[in-house]
Each structure stands twice: as C-alpha cells, then as structure tokens.
C-alpha cells in the first residue's frame, strides 16, 4: 500500500488569506516581501491573493511551483526569468492589491483640503452673495 500524505486547505488559527480590503500598511509589507524575493533574483510566478498568507504582522508567500530565477545556478531546476519579468510581476501584484505607492499617498494627503479650509471657502462664498 503506497504512503499517502494528507493535505488540508484549512489555515492554522490566526492565519488568513490576503484580500484587497487590508490596511495599506499590510499591503506595504506584502510588496516588501515580493521586493525581497525579487532582490534575490527570484520570481514567485503565481501572484494571487490566496498565495499570500497573513499572520500578525508576518507575510508568507506560498505556492512557489511556478517560481523562476534570473540567475543560472548550478544544480537548480528553476526556470530562468528576466528583470522585466520581475517588474511585470510587481506591477501585477500592486494592481491585484490595489496598492497605491506611498509617494502618491503622501502627495494626495498634501492636496487634501482640511475642514477649516472648507469652512473658509464656505464663509467666503456666503459673504460674496
């Protein structure tokens, strides 16, 4: 009788699958995890929310069967990819997460009108009539 391994789809307590509704800080941590992977020359190869697991402030990337590398390594059976592939994967990840770059968020917050500014505008409009 062959030995069989039992595989379960249930996550351990406290773990969850990433979603687009997570806080920006968590999205930033996910982007950093992919950046760290890419810095090592490795492409995940299967960017999907259900391949990103979260627990506390930790991100775990799973399902690396489609991984590739930009480096030819002796004894490695990983397929090769290019820098362009890494960039494309990062764009796909950011699109999937609906991730807004921090620089864009900083710029947007600078342009946000505060309630005191709105009160001044409203007062100016009503006094000019």
Which helices and strands appear, and what pairs or packs with what?
Layout: E1 16-17, H1 24-39, E2 42-43, E3 52-55, E4 58-61, E5 68-69, H2 83-97, H3 102-111, H4 115-127
Antiparallel strand pairs: 1-3, 2-5, 3-4
Helix pairs in contact: 1-2
Organism: Obba rivulosa
InterPro entries: Kinase-like_dom_sf
Protein name: Protein kinase domain-containing protein
Report, as a whole number of angstroms, the end-to-end distance. Answer: 90 Å
Oligomeric description of these chains:
single chain
What would you call the shape? globular
Task: Using the coordinates above, name the CATH class of one domain.
Answer: Mainly Alpha
Class per helix and strand makeup: alpha+beta
| Largest beta-sheet characterization | 3 strands, antiparallel
Element order: H for helix, E for strand: EHEEEEHHH
What CATH calls the topology of one domain is Transferase(Phosphotransferase), domain 1
Q: Superfamily at the CATH H level of one domain? A: Transferase(Phosphotransferase) domain 1
How many beta-strand segments?
A: 5
Fraction of helical residues: 40-55%
Strand order of the largest sheet: 1-3-4
Organism: Obba rivulosa
Protein name: Protein kinase domain-containing protein
